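Re: that backbone. C-alpha cells:
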C-alpha cells in the first residue's frame, strides 16, 4: 500500500499516513512510527530514496521527502500486474 501511495509523487511519513487514510476513506489508520520504520526498510531495499521537497511545509524542520527509485517503480508495476 505504501509503494502504491508513492505513485502520487514524493511524500514524507505523515503525508503518507494522510494519503492512505484518504484513499481508504479512513478505514486504514497507520501510525507514523510504523510508517517511518517501513520507509527505512524500503530505502534499504532500494525502492525509495530521499529527494528534494516539492514545497515548503512551514516553519521548523523540513520533512524528508522520498521518491520512488527505478527499482521501486518496477516493483510497483509488478505488484499492479499481480493484483
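Recovered sequence:
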Amino acid at each position: 500500500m505504501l509503494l502504491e501511495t508513492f505513485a502520487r509523487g514524493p511524500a514524507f511519513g505523515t503525508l503518507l499516513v494522510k494519503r492512505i487514510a484518504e484513499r481508504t476513506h479512513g478505514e486504514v489508520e497507520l501510525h507514523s512510527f510504523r510508517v517511518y520504520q517501513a520507509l527505512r526498510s524500503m530505502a534499504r531495499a532500494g525502492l525509495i530514496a530521499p529527494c528534494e521537497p516539492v514545497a515548503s511545509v512551514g516553519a521548523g524542520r523540513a520533512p524528508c521527502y522520498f521518491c520512488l527509485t527505478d527499482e521501486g517503480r518496477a516493483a510497483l508495476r509488478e505488484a499492479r500486474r499481480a493484483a
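Residues 2-82 form a domain with the Arc Repressor Mutant, subunit A fold (CATH 1.10.10.10). DSSP finds four helices and two strands in the chain.
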